[in-house]
Amino acid sequence: xxxxxxxxxxxxxxxxxxxxxxxxxxxxxxxxxxxxxxxxxxxxxxxxxxxxxxxxxxxxxxxxxxxxxxxxxxxxxxxxxxxxxxxxxxxxxxxxxxxxxxxxxxxxxxxxxxxxxxxxxxxxxxxxxxxxxxxxxxxxxxxxxxxxxxxxxxxxxxxxxxxxxxxxxxxxxxxxxxxxxxxxxxxxxxxxxxxxxxxxxxxxxxxxxxxxxxxxxxxxxxxxxxxxxxxxxxxxxxxxxxxxxxxxxxxxxxxxxxxxxxxxxxxxxxxxxxxxxxxxxxxxxxxxxxxxxxxxxxxxxxxxxxxxxxxxxxxxxxxxxxxxxxxxxxxxxxxxxxxxxxxxxxxxxxxxxxxxxxxxxxxxxxxxxx
Length: 370
What we know:
Layout: H1 3-23, H2 25-36, E1 42-45, H3 61-64, H4 98-101, H5 105-116, E2 124-127, E3 136-137, H6 146-156, E4 162-168, H7 176-179, H8 182-187, E5 195-199, H9 217-220, E6 231-235, H10 241-250, E7 257-261, H11 271-282, E8 295-300, E9 309-313, H12 315-322, E10 344-347, E11 354-356, H13 360-365
Parallel strand pairs: 1-2, 2-4, 3-4, 4-5, 5-6, 6-7, 7-8
Antiparallel strand pairs: 8-9, 9-10, 10-11
Helix pairs in contact: 2-5, 5-6
């Protein structure tokens, strides 16, 4: 498709988008669907719908209608730095302008309608950054505001069970948005919660480990309020090993899976290696019946950092060490990659991209690269 034709088509898309926003047709459409699909259970809001060029994450009707070869700037919602791919620092929500808040237009519409519309059965809410260096501005939990109240109202709804929440926390470990206690108060209202996945932007986009204070897990996760919790996921967290162990001891016996993604240990030399050893020694998981032992998966950034790409240790690879006599798959103080031969490389935006975690020479021998 010629560049001039791409530009003309792109300009028409922008005009259509501006028209939709002016008329608030996007909010009206969501309300229409919410009222007419009583069996709707999951709502997902993401800035990554377009994926990468020619590989969209979601093939929406609009994206499917794009002409073949349409080359365009990939749009990213929320507060995002598209030039340097660095983490944007969140602004205080109480001081933010309407234009700034409009960066989260879709998220705010969803919060407002899910909290105000009485007759719906949405039990799962996902604000999912898909590993892009962004998320909901967590400063909405710094002081009382409409968005914080709406979030709390959704958590309190009968039947609400699953929350996936990506938060824009900035790149350093100043956890201002959690210090007020409003976040903990809100999520503690979800008494029927079974699945929780939280991610931050701590250290996201940085090539160097951070030495800021770890996130105060006990002030964020009211595990005693979730007696039916079966899945816990933490992504891009700065963690103190002892505090995480204490949190896992508090987890209900219903916990069946734990996902740890891109975890940093600013003051623990053994990092993930030491964490697995502590989990094997300090938790009672090894003593449980096989069907009751939580599965543990670990995702790491790998040697070549790129949004959406990661190395993941399977639950079997972790379980061999955690519950058996196998080798620890993690490598000393490294939080970027497991030992060679352990884990698989994946790409969130390219489903066919899978390759073993081995060096370039082995990849050539396997015929994966030339």
